[in-house]
Design brief:
Shape: elongated
Radius of gyration: 25 Å
Order of helices and strands: HEEHHHEHEEEHHHEHEEHEEEEHEE
Largest sheet: 6 strands, antiparallel
Length: about 350
């Protein structure tokens, strides 16, 4: 068997890889680097590396040392950003290219994927630990609340003025608590999702239209879809719940003055994760919900998918925990990048199995 060609090896590198010359110009990039930089190879080749990528490390000195000593250099921690997203902590590997003096191979190892996958597993465990409490609360509290609400309505029939206002307050507050318990109760739903082939754009459009006639009426929602995206394998009702929840959060973060939400879909073949049975799952279908709100408070950003963690004064902290649970039940992955003025929730989902068509929708 013949050895694979250099082009085949280059194309098979799973990490973002860039070829840099002695002048610091980009000479070539692989497909993962195009995805990481959110730019095509054609637009990157010939451009100065440090014009296209901000690196929180002394890169000019590092590149010079690699060329001068003709030896590799490893940078364990550096924050990288293209200016279009929050900085990503990465490890960088720089190595001279054999038989090509002055050329350097740079490999980028983003830590965000491993860190967030680990955090996602922790969040899933935390959500499941809330199931027992959720079932107990729903059972023990909802029934007495129904009695309290009914008694208050009976009392109201013979009251007027301030007394009537008090009974109305009792009814209103019991209804609010019941709605909260219904949210908590959903954690107790252990039934697997009823999955089938789902067109992501149809689900997003349904969620967008629903938001625009309600809490998202003041928002400007734009679409940036990849029309060639194949269907995913999901429970359409649960997927709709995820999108509605994220749109609601973005709308509420913007405040009464409104703001902008961008719905983006694209294909990324590089992301994989292990299923519960130990087999590998590819998650090529990407959905991003991007808003220009104030961002997630830094003190809760790392725990935003935990139950009962909320950045809003009257928030329950259950919406994003439920979103995380639903995505995990679909063998998917959800992450968030947030800085003031730009918050991106990214959902990664699997393809529908072969043989399933969108006619089953």
């Amino acid at each position: 068997m013949s050895r694979p060609s250099a082009d085949a090896i280059w194309a098979s590198i799973p990490l973002p890889a860039l070829l840099i010359d002695a002048a610091g110009l980009i000479k070539d990039v692989n497909a993962p680097a195009e995805i990481f930089l959110n730019a095509s190879a054609k637009s990157l080749i010939g451009q100065p590396l440090l014009d296209r990528l901000s690196i929180d490390a002394p890169m000019e000195d590092a590149l010079a040392r690699v060329i001068q000593h003709d030896s590799p250099l490893f940078i364990s921690e550096a924050d990288l950003t293209t200016g279009e997203r929050a900085p990503v902590q990465c490890a960088l590997q720089l190595a001279p290219v054999q038989d090509h003096p002055g050329y350097i191979l740079m490999l980028i190892s983003p830590r965000e994927i491993a860190d967030r996958l680990g955090r996602a597993m922790h969040v899933t465990s935390a959500a499941k630990s809330a199931i027992g409490m959720a079932e107990m609360l729903a059972h023990e509290i909802k029934n007495p609340l129904a009695g309290i609400s009914g008694a208050a309505q009976l009392l109201a029939m013979g009251l007027a003025g301030e007394d009537l206002e008090l009974t109305d307050l009792i009814v209103e507050e019991t209804h609010r608590i019941v709605k909260l318990l219904e949210q908590v109760e959903q954690f107790g739903n252990l039934r697997p999702p009823a999955r089938k082939a789902v067109n992501l754009h149809d689900a997003l459009d349904r969620a967008r239209r629903s938001a625009m006639v309600g809490y998202g009426a003041a928002m400007q929602i734009t679409e940036d879809y990849d029309p060639s995206l194949p269907p995913t394998f999901a429970d359409p009702d649960q997927l709709m719940q995820v999108f509605l929840n994220l749109l609601k959060n973005a709308s509420e973060a913007a405040g009464p003055g409104g703001g902008q939400i961008r719905l983006r879909t694209f294909y990324d073949h590089s992301l994989r994760r292990l299923r519960k049975d130990g087999t590998a799952a590819t998650l090529p279908l990407q959905v991003e919900i991007i808003d220009n709100g104030p961002g997630i408070p830094p003190d809760i950003a790392a725990d935003i998918f935990e139950p009962f963690v909320s950045g809003r004064e009257n928030g329950t902290g259950l919406g994003l925990a439920l979103v995380s649970k639903i995505i995990s039940d679909h063998d998917g992955w959800i992450s968030v990048d947030s800085v003031p003025g730009r918050t991106v929730f990214r959902i990664s989902l699997p393809l529908a199995p072969r043989g399933l068509s969108e006619e089953q929708l």
